[in-house]
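User: Structure tokens for this complex, please. No commentary.
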Amino acid sequence: MTAHLLDIRGLTKAYPGVVANDDVSFAIAPGAVHALLGENGAGKSTLVKMIYGLVKPDSGTMTLNGTTYAPAEPRAARLSGVAMVFQHFSLFEALSVAENIALGMENPPRPRDLSDRIREVSLAYGLPLDPESLIGDLSAGERQRVEIIRCLLQDPKLLIMDEPTSVLTPQEVEILFHTLRTLSAEGTAILYISHKLEEIRSLCDAATILRLGRMVGACDPRDVSASDMAEMMVGKSLAVPGRAASAPGDTLLSVNALTLPAATPFGTSLKEVSLTLRAGEVLGIGGVAGNGQDELLAVLSGERRTVPGKITFQATDISGTSANARRAAGLLSAPEERLGHAAAPDMSLTENAVLTGQSRRGLARNGFISWSRARAFADEIIARFDVRTPGNGTAARALSGGNLQKFVIGREILQDPVVLVVNQPTWGVDASAAADIRQALLTLAENGAGVIVISQDLDELLEISDHFCALNEGRLSAPRPARGLSMEAIGLMLGGAHGMREATIAAEPHGASA
Amino acid sequence: MIRLEKRPTPSRAWALSTPILAVVLTMIAGGLMFAALGKDPVEVIRVIFWDPLFHERFSGFLRPQLLVKAGPLILIAIGLSLGFKAGVWNIGAEGQYIMGALFGAAFGLALYPSENPLIFPGMIVAGLIGGTLWAMIPALLKVFANTNEILVSLLLVYVAEAMLASAATGLLRNPDGAGFPGSRNLSRHPGTDNPEIFAGTGMHWGVLAAFIAVIAAYVLFQKHTLGFQIRLAGQAPRAARFAGVNPGRLVILCLGISGALAGAAGLFEVSGPAGQISIDFNVGYGFTAIIVAFLGRLHPIGILLAGLLLALTIIGGELAQVLLGVPVAAIQAFQGMLLFFLLALDVLANYRIRWKRGALA
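Assistant:
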């Protein structure tokens, strides 16, 4: 075996109250694609932040190319040949691709030279991208390419990728994997963080598994089954959500050819959206975020109202009714953005329980809030959905993303909805909590409610949906039965003509157009 | 290097102790300023904070002034705090205060010389209406034309001042006043006067109204859904919309209530301590109330205490001018320091200061 590119020995990092990393050791070979696996809170992020120089380890050593490596800041890490693509992009929407890349460089070359370099790199690695286009006009997949190209221009020896596929369509994932394999063949090592096990099995040649900050295993993902890896990751076997089959009931909610202009310059307008939801049905709506998901939720929750005759709920036209009137009637929702939309960050969990629970849980009489009932409701959510928090007086912003998500979903489910609309219900939630949330949604449908799940996670949608629609650029496809739907078919529903163009470009041999 | 780190939960201890700390720091910094002016800092601070209440000769006269000055400040600040919590910035309470006084005085003077006991309640209603109408201008412009309520409400103060001058010299001028500007004296006429409820305490009906407003606001924020919606809209506007709060309705409500209370404060002043409509009737209560609202952390009880404290510095400041010859500007700077230190220390409730060793590599 060749010498290691990066050798990590006994890295430990403790924060007040929690040991994020406890004596973690592993090594990455040059050109290897190394997976870092673990649930949320397992310590993956802290570990890569130490490698990238954002966090200083308490103890332990790192060796890069045989020399001691202790980056004081990301700039030092980049100079040593370590680059990172973050899960959340830091791009300016109103600037062009080239301008955004120039902003991140120490000594940016002249704009024209930079544009040429970007074109060169994007062709060489099959990442089609126009340096002059505005970030605001790009899809999430294209934005990620900007971040990747920004890294590749530094000619890195180690590329760290934090959950890169969570925002991509299946076709875009293929393009990305193609790029990563090319890089690996050229000798660039890749540290790949994900909790999607099938991806790791098809891409990576080594894996390190973390749980609660400790290294609990290492394996060659090509030889180990996904369920075995999941067990190592979670520490127990996961129950697959399920429910008894039921015949579809009456129509609860229908949307009829709804067209709605975008509320903000970079928002998406909804175009001729129609859907029907029956009692006991789970309707999955897939698609990459930014294609009208937020707008669809806002128009169903009542945050935005429409012209009459567009939305019918239990045979009543609710197109113009307020969010609270819809809630009282039994149409509940949980938006994607937890902090600031589904919950007020600085308010306590009790106050956040009042946020939507007022009418259906009788938390207010004649305009006066009963705080004792509100506390009881908050405690009920906390207990039933296993929300980890010191108490109902804790501010929402102090909770971890997964815990707050459990609280938000639980708050709506415990209000006994007739129809529940959720956007990204398990985004950033660890595997066992995600399974709990999915099970709760299925149980809700089993008891006769209608559930709409808007999600980017296609595996999740296929697991729990009865019907599947794709939302792309504000258009909703016709529903298809989710059972037996192949990933390829979904990809075509999702990508539309836009995604196909990119897939064809990527399929061309490199340099053909140079 | 100093770094600010956001606290996971706002610190209650800091939120409660920063006003006291701000007062202490103001005394220190103000003391240095007074020393630089050649005055004995300890004596000036004593004259400002101690003598109005306990001076042998002056306190008998000055003590009632505390409630007279604090009353309108508290009443206006309570109204403003509703809007400030919701992110609706009414900076024009001074104008609404003037319009309340004009409407109320006009109602009382129209029925002169009747001494019907229903006139004063009628004047209060007129004052509430005057302030509300004046506040509706920025409110409706914001909701329907998306204008900035800070600018509109502020500029309307100057319009109101012009109308006050016009009324004092024209429409409402005392016909028996030998041509001097200013209206008839309302406080010396039974039926239009706002007397002290307990003689010698300074406690007139406006002070009582201020105390009632404090209690009402306390209940509103602790118990009522409207108070909850106001806080929600200020902290997380998107979550407020999700919770069914109508932002436009909230703007109209907050500006309306703050305008009404400022208008009432104007009416109580013109029919009581000021006595008449005159060109220089307004003395800046509407602006000082902004300081009171923030000094009291937009909390009703805090505003009550802050109103009393600021009234004390106003009375004490005037005393210091008379007794020690401290310039007016220095007194104003002293009051400004109070707000400055409070807002600066406010950061500590939400952030932790970290002293980071070692410079950047």
